[in-house]
Amino acid sequence: DTAVSQTPKYLVTQMGNDKSIKCEQNLGHDTMYWYKQDSKKFLKIMFSYNNKELIINETVPNRFSPKSPDKAHLNLHINSLELGDSAVYFCASSQDPGGGGDEQFFGPGTRLTVL
Amino acid sequence: SQQGEEDPQALSIQEGENATMNCSYKTSINNLQWYRQNSGRGLVHLILIRSNEREKHSGRLRVTLDTSKKSSSLLITASRAADTASYFCATVKGSGYALNFGKGTSLLVTP
Questions:
Q1: Secondary structure letter of residue B95 according to DSSP
Q2: Are A88 and A104 in contact (CB under 8 A)?
Q3: Number of CB pairs < 8 Å for A and B?
Q4: At the N or C end, where does chain B have fewer CB atoms within 10 A?
């Protein structure tokens, strides 16, 4: 029973294309996140959603648009893909503790390669 | 920036030895967390230490936090080959609870 799942695991596409990455969590958590890990393994927050509402948008280009149809899903749509978008994208979730953050559960990652 | 910085960047030890990784950060925090990432995998939460705690243990892991020095350390005792992974410290950033990661320490444990 996967707690946080992402699809696809690998995504290879051409520059200029539009693609989506899906994320689902079955933990009943209130908050979901998207992180980007670059080739040097540096992880950076992109978005944070709490109960389907956007909480954090960390200076991510408008080409990236998260969509949360319900509390268990947070999808990431990317328009007009660029070479620099190549990275591993991780979805994560956490319970909303109301007290300053809690452990996060990460999905297996989606390795995006833009050619 | 609240970014954590791990030290060393890479560490190579033999099985049975202890591994110590350090993390520094810049601003006040709610808590500090350590994560492990095996090659090609997602991150796994190891331990969380709150700003009012100084030390925490979990199995072979020991974490310390010094808020006056804005630093934390992760000690893995009696290391095993299976401990080979990248280890990241992360601080909680603002009210959105997003994690602010350091650059990680790559640990190699050889049999």
A1: G
A2: no
A3: 71
A4: C
Tokens of B50: 């709150």
Could you tell me which of A77, A92, A82, A78 has the C-alpha nearest to residue A24?
A92
Strand partners, A56: A48
Distance CA A48, CA A35 (A): 9
| Paired tokens of A93 | 């979730």
Cβ of B99 within 8 Å of Cβ of A43? The answer is yes
- Give the residues across from B13 on adjacent strands: B109
DSSP state at residue B78: S
Check CB contact of A95 with chain B, cutoff 8 Å: no
User: Which of A43, A60, A94 is the mutation pick for testing B, counting most B CBs within 10 A?
Assistant: A43
* pLDDT-derived band at B4, boundaries 50, 70, 90: low
Q: Report pLDDT digits (tens) over A15-71.
A: 999 999 999 999 999 889 999 999 999 999 998 888 878 877 777 899 999 999 999
Instruction: Give me A15's structure tokens.
Output: 């520059």
CB contact under 8 A, B96 and A55: yes
**Phi, psi angle pair for B96, to nearest 5°:** -85, -5
Backbone phi, psi, residue A6, to 5° = -130, 145
Q: Which residues of B touch A (CB under 8 A)?
A: 30-31, 33, 35, 37, 41-45, 48, 50, 86, 88, 90, 92-101, 103-104
Give backbone dihedrals phi and psi of B39, rounded to 5 degrees, phi first: -55, 125
SS3 category, B104: coil
